[in-house]
Input
Amino acid sequence: MTTTLPLSPDELLTTTRAVRKRLDLARPVPMDLIRECLEIAVQAPSGSNAQTWHWVVVTDPGKRAAIGDLYRRSFAAYAESKSFAGSLHADDPDRGAVQRRVGDSAAYLAEHMGEVPVLLIPCLRAPGELPAANQAGLWASLHPAVWSYALAARARGLGTAWTSLHLVYEREVAELLGIPADMRQGALIPTAYYTGDTFKPAAREPIDTVLHHDAW
Output
């Protein structure tokens, strides 16, 4: 097994950041290393221990480029929307500046998504239409494993970013990759070695502004 970085659990949890501009687009990532991260990921919980997840690892240059084109198209629409990260908190000088940096790095990733050495698409078996009601229980059987993958990657010197804008074109991506009709895609995780290991905890709202004890 690959030697992991000497990170404490708290360091791992607080320094696994969304890596965009610092992904090394030129350095190949061994498939064995991705498999190792996925072996860790599938130790995560799933509803009824069903383990209905599947993992599509895309390294083919042509397929990565095609996914990158679809992602870029989706990002262009997102960047014009009110929910665009770079436009949030514009009336707050401090948070607004942070959001503009996030928006800038997100735009960079969108432009280069097709060049990232590994694109991981986690999928979940969900026959038929997704439930109209709250889907928390459904996706809770996939997302913990996806985050475990990101943590395992960080511990092995790989950077990731959790994205989902490609889902606007979920059907097109499924056709490109031959994903069966009963599988739903849950995310798109670009994965690459990163440059400069200077990750640190991000600024967050004070916990007392979001903590509710016994009642709201």
Notes: Residues 12 and 143 are 18 Å apart (CA to CA). The longest strand covers residues 118-125. The chain has seven helices and five strands.
